[in-house]
From TrEMBL:
<protein>
    <submittedName>
        <fullName>Purine-binding chemotaxis protein CheW</fullName>
    </submittedName>
</protein>
<dbReference type="InterPro" id="IPR036061">
    <property type="entry name" value="CheW-like_dom_sf"/>
</dbReference>
<dbReference type="Pfam" id="PF01584">
    <property type="entry name" value="CheW"/>
</dbReference>
<dbReference type="GO" id="GO:0005829">
    <property type="term" value="C:cytosol"/>
</dbReference>
<dbReference type="InterPro" id="IPR002545">
    <property type="entry name" value="CheW-lke_dom"/>
</dbReference>
<dbReference type="InterPro" id="IPR039315">
    <property type="entry name" value="CheW"/>
</dbReference>
<dbReference type="GO" id="GO:0006935">
    <property type="term" value="P:chemotaxis"/>
</dbReference>
<dbReference type="GO" id="GO:0007165">
    <property type="term" value="P:signal transduction"/>
</dbReference>
<feature type="domain" description="CheW-like">
    <location>
        <begin position="17"/>
        <end position="159"/>
    </location>
</feature>
Amino acid sequence: MTTLPTLSGMKPSTEKPLHLVGFQVGSEEYCFEILKVREIIRMTPVTPVPGAPGHLEGIINLRGRIVPVIDFRKRFRITGECAVDEADKVIVVTTTGNRTVGFIVDSLSQVMKLPAKDLSPAPAGASGCDGEAIRGVGNVGDRLVIVLDLEKMFSDDELTALTGVS
């Protein structure tokens, strides 16, 4: 069977769409792959850890499991209001090696499917460890979302140190 070209002369994409969980931090929208998200909880009291990196807000007890909680704004040096309040959410994710980490975000936006063809590469100015965490920028309706690669958000040493707290 022959695949017919599309109107633009290109073959249709056979890549599976990305399934994402969107969230707001400040005025920007970000996404994680839905398969990495373990659960989403309301903001809960966080126990500070002395000597921890500045972006580590502290730890929480999540049904008997100690989970490090990272302030997303501080981790990515997002300027603006940084105060954590009870309206915030914690997205609990699982990384390589079954390590669990929570991210404090302002709010959730939606669960979405993003066709692979609608994902553009990360901007040229996004370099370094933080820039490598940006998988790309997606067009969702009339807005842009930043798609993050959870596995590249932390070095192995940093992730071990964070989860070693637990």
